[in-house]
Each structure stands twice: as C-alpha cells, then as structure tokens.
Design a protein that fits this description.
By secondary structure, this protein is an alpha/beta fold. It has one domain: P-loop containing nucleotide triphosphate hydrolases (Rossmann fold), CATH 3.40.50.300. It has nine helices and eight strands. A hairpin with a 2-residue loop joins strand 4 and strand 5. Bound molecules: 2'-deoxycytidine-5'-monophosphate. The site of 2'-deoxycytidine-5'-monophosphate (DC) has 14 residues, from helix 2, helix 4 and helix 8.
Length: 212
C-alpha cells in the first residue's frame, strides 16, 4: 500500500514524504532518485539523453537500491552524485522516454506492492499506483519553490527559478507520466505553510482514512 505524494520540483515532497513515513512507520520511496540514477549512469557511460533505446536497456539493467537514506548503484553510494545540477538536468531529459519510465514504474510497483510506503514523485498517484488510498499533490508558488531549492543548494535563486521553469514545462508536457494531480488527489498548496503544518496535515489525512 502506498501514500502517493506528487508535485513539482521544490514543493517539499521529499522532506514531507520522509517525515510522514517516519511518523507513520512506513517506508519512504524517492522515485526521482531512480530517474537521477539512470541519468548519472548515462552521463558516466556516455549515453546520449535522446537515445531512448540505450537508456531503456540501461534502466532495465540498473542495479539501483535504497539503503535507509542512502541511494546505491551496485555497491557505490551515489546519494550526493545524483544531486548535482548536471544530473538534475539530465534526469529531466531521460525521464521523457517511455521505456525508461516503464522499467522504473515496474520496479516502483514491485516495491510498494510489498509493504507500506510513502512514495514521492510525479506520477505515483496517476500511473504507479492509481489505487492508492491517499494521494496528495503538493504545490507551492514558483518563487517559493526556487527559494527553497536555492537555500538548500547554495545556488542563485534566479538561476534555480529559470532551470525550474524549464523542468516544470518538460515534466508537465511530456506524453508519458506527465506531472498532473490525480482526479481524486488532495491538492495542498504549501506556500507560506511551515514544514510541521504540512506533515501534520498529510499525517492527519492518513489517520482519518484509517491507513495508520
Ligand atoms: O523529484 P526529483 O527532482 O528528484 O526528480 C528528478 C527528475 O525525475 C525530474 O526531472 C522528474 C523526474 N521524475 C519523473 O519523471 N517521475 C517521477 N516519479 C519522479 C521523478
């Protein structure tokens, strides 16, 4: 069973999903880390981000795993390497390929089908698990999202905002697994809300629905 937390970059999905999972005793799944791992392996292997066939076979064979808060590729800890601006941009490009998405969605379904998860991404409530009993679509204003990202990474806010607009457009416009709220999702705008308020709200929804 999975609580789905979807939304655009910088809406606070990871921190909120991680905290809700800890509070409810569920496992956290960061689906974006899987797309990032494919992007990292492609960059390192010299695979072009337009080569859907090569990226699909890479995604199908990729030995990406989670160990607590660490992301592993084989035995290598790639937790930091997948967060660079270069990998962030490449992840957005590799994630448009239907074959890459199919390979990763299959793995995500296998994971969440075998336990109690809080999973965050773009398409958890729409594609990975449309039967999820609680879908939350987290949003915040463009500026607030860029400010949060810049505060985390130390980058310039204007640069983050420009890259984010580009990424939002490609995440929303792609044909497969596009970023959109499921019809039955609870839309939560976190602009101006404190982190604890958001975590409380999502946890309460889970309790009200008898999930925890
Ligand atoms: O959430 P994130 O920034 O770590 O995601 C990295 C990229 O992966 C982002 O450009 C969108 C893509 N992604 C996706 O297409 N589907 C998901 N479920 C999660 C992420």
């Amino acid at each position: 069973m999975v609580i789905a937390i979807d939304g655009p970059a910088g809406a606070g999905k990871s921190t909120v999903a991680r905290a809700v999972a800890a509070r409810l005793g569920f496992t956290f799944l960061d689906s974006g880390a899987m797309y990032r791992a494919v992007a990292l392996a492609a960059l390192e292997g010299g695979i072009d981000s337009d080569d859907g066939a090569a990226l699909t076979s890479l995604a199908e064979q990729l030995d990406v795993r989670f160990d607590g808060t660490r992301v592993l590729l084989g035995d290598r800890d790639i937790s930091a390497a997948i967060r660079t601006p270069e990998v962030t941009a490449a992840a957005s490009r590799v994630s448009v390929h239907p074959g890459v998405r199919e390979a990763l969605v299959a793995r995500q379904r296998a994971l969440v089908g075998a336990g109690s998860y809080v999973a965050e991404g773009r398409d958890i409530g729409t594609v990975v698990s449309p039967e999820s009993p609680l879908k939350v679509f987290l949003t915040a204003s463009d500026e607030e999202r860029a400010r949060r990202r810049a505060a985390q990474s130390g980058e310039d806010v204007a640069a983050v905002l420009a890259a984010q607009r580009h990424r939002d457009a490609s995440d929303s416009e792609r044909e497969h697994g596009a970023l959109r709220a499921a019809p039955d999702a609870v839309v939560l705008d976190t602009t101006g809300l404190g982190f604890d308020q958001v975590v409380d709200r999502v946890s309460s929804l889970a309790t009200e629905r008898g999930l925890a």
